Amino acid sequence: MQDLVPIAREIAARLIERRQTIAVAESSTGGLISAALLAVPGGSAYFQGSAVVYTRDARRILMDIPDDAMKGIRSASEPYAKLLASRIRNRFSCDWGLSETGATGPTGNRYGDAAGHSCMAVAGASDQLAMTLETGSADRLANMQTFASTALKFFLQTLSR
Predict the structure, then answer these.
(1) Average pLDDT in the 3-32 region?
(2) Please, which residues have CB within 8 angstroms of residue 144's CB and are 6 or more apart in sequence?
(3) pLDDT tens-digit profile of 110-144?
(4) Could you tell me the CA-to-CA distances from 31 to 1, 7, 68 in Å, in that order?
(5) Do the Cβ atoms of 121 and 132 come closer than 8 Å?
(6) For the residues of 25-38, what is the DSSP string, one character each?
(7) How far is the C-alpha of 157 from the C-alpha of 159, rounded, in Å?
(8) Cβ neighbours, 10 Å, residue 53
């Protein structure tokens, strides 16, 4: 977690400077992205809220994404990450949505992804960006940390554009 806070500090400074806000929907990181953003003092100025969307029930209940809206979209994919980022942004009426979904390990997920697979996305007012990360590792804790770090860096790069 300590490695995540310096990245979160940079994000916080930029969001506060711009008077912008963020909400997070994360899955396999289990709340690490949100925790890093909230470890920075003054989080209420830029952090609107988050959801750990770890199961299908969580997707339906927390994100209001019914099963029929998932037709043609596989969990732990870039299209799903984009959907989560957009949905969390809209649900919290904020400037940015950040999402992460994947398979931390020690085994892969039921969708055929190997351990170490993560997709993340950023949704803003005019665009959505997504990326996929493959660590090649089955180390659950290391993957959670790497996924969270990569998602935060991906968001920081988006803010820097």
Answers:
(1) 97
(2) 28, 29, 30, 32, 104
(3) 888 999 999 999 999 988 999 999 999 999 999 99
(4) 11, 16, 27
(5) no
(6) EESTTTTHHHHHHH
(7) 5
(8) 26
The answer to whether the Cα torsion of 130, 134, 140, 146 is positive or negative is negative
Residue type, 110: R
- Rounded Cα gap, residues 86 and 98, in angstroms: 8
**Identity of residue 15:** L
49: which DSSP letter?
E
What is the value of pTM for the model shown? 0.96
Under DSSP, the state recorded for 113 is P
140 token code pair: 């659950």
The angle, 0 to 180 degrees and rounded to 10, between the axes of the packed helices 5-18 and 140-160 is 30
Is-contact 36 4, C-beta < 8 A?
yes
Residue 154 has which token pair?
């991906």
Residue ranges of alpha helices (H) inside the chain are 5-18, 32-38, 56-63, 78-91, 140-160
Tokens in use for 2?
């300590």
Q: Can you tell me the distance from the alpha carbon of 85 to that of 107, in angstroms, rounded to the nearest whole number?
A: 25
Report the amino acid identity of residue 41: P
